[in-house]
Amino acid sequence: MKYSDGQRLEKIRSMTAKLLSYLREEQITAEIVQEKEPVRWAVTTPLYNIGEHVYYLSDAFKEKYPDIPWKKISGLRHRLVHDYENTNWSIICAILFEVLPDFYAKLETVHKQETDES
Questions:
Q1: How far is it, in rounded angstroms, from Cα 68 to Cα 61?
Q2: Residues 55/108/29/39 CA torsion (nearest 10 deg)
Q3: Set 77, 78, 79, 111: catalytic member
């Protein structure tokens, strides 16, 4: 199925919100991510999906919001999918606990701007 940028943005927002909620509700910490393989699987699946949808956003959409590191986000998906065995879990933990909340806040701002324009 071909999605519009708006539909992809909504999927990215939803998956990011669900991942942040999971981390909070299950009281997941960086230490738990480092130690428990099922948790690593649970957190990387949404990251794959977020990266996949980011990759397929139009160039015009990504250029409109240059403060979001779109290439890094889709690049993370590529690394997780194609080189999972060599994943640096310290980096993933930094993304989950330091980067993801800010990314979600930026997505909310983008959503508001896009909604106001339509």
A1: 11
A2: -40
A3: 77
**Listed residue (69, 70, 91) closest to 80, CA to CA:** 91
82 is annotated as an active-site residue: yes
Instruction: Please tell me the distance from the alpha carbon of residue 67 to that of residue 63, in angstroms, as a whole number.
Output: 9
Flag the least confident range among 11-15, 71-75, 84-88, 94-98: 84-88
- Mean of the pLDDT values across residues 44-71? 97
- Please compute, for residue 69, the number of CA atoms within 13 A of its CA located in the half-sphere on the CB side: 9
pLDDT in tens, 7-19: 999 999 999 999 9
> Model-level pTM?
0.93
> Average per-residue pLDDT in the chain?
95
Delimit the domains of the chain by residue range.
Answer: 5-117
